Amino acid sequence: MQISTKFTLFLPTILNNIILALLRKRKSENLFSLVTLRCCFFTDQEDYTAGSMADNLEPVTESVLSADHWLTHARQLIPTAIERAHATTVFPVRWKSIISKLESVPTSLSDLASHPCFLKNTLCRETLQSVASTLSEAIGLAELCESGDAVRHGKLQMQSDIDSLAAKLDLNLRDCALLVKTGVLSDATVPVVPAPGLAVASVPVLNQQLNVGELLARLHIGNAEAKHRVVDSLLEVIREDEKSVLSVLRRSSILAMIQLLSAGKPKVREKAATIICLLAESASFETLLVSEGVLPPLIRLAESGSLVGREKAVITLQSIEVES
Predict the structure, then answer these.
(1) How far apart (Å, rounded) are the C-alpha atoms in residues 84 and 153?
(2) The DUF7032 domain covers which part of the protein (predicted)?
């Protein structure tokens, strides 16, 4: 099917308008899909100046959605996001704070791109994908603030949206810093080729340990909902093969798990307490748990947590007391 050059030239603009409309209606589930579609297919000018869509659009493969792809796309969005934010006259104090965060993004991206494991880990790709989505949202929200629809959108709603954007930028910057400055990326590298002479039967063990390492790394990044999913997956892995988790567990992951004992959602606290309860049964982790500050949140959970949370907290405290 042939598509005219004139139509393909305007297609990115059409997608931008749809994205803006969805943002106004807060249809986030559709918004992200469209942002992804636009950045996958129209990153380069050549992609939408040819006469045939079939001849010029590559299929969406893993290589297209690589970390390099999202890095390039995020860098392309940054100048536009900053420019739109500077042009916004509504809620100047809030936008000044957002501009400061946007100006910190290039350095964070450069630091992440320079990490030796940058191209070897899906965490980088997913983090950059999240950054690109936030930048697209910043552009759309700044345009909405300056449009005639800003009043109809509602002052309180607009303030809430701007505050939400600021929180997302903070989370993106924090995640980039964590990936770079901690050993998270190194601990969660994709499976490597085993050394010569290593038994074939050991290869699945290596791969499983590296997969668990990536799962543990996800405890450090993302929002509360993402961490909830990670805890669910960890519990499942532990029940199937506890040794695979214990063998790759690091101090930083234990600290991240302890912090989840104070999470906002009771279910997250319960599941984190369940994992810590299992760790406390192992003598090799009892001292580490105490040194990382597990006692105060456990005591709080034992006093005011849910029924399951209190039960797991009490068992863990008793286990630590016996070991002591």
Answers:
(1) 18
(2) 73-184
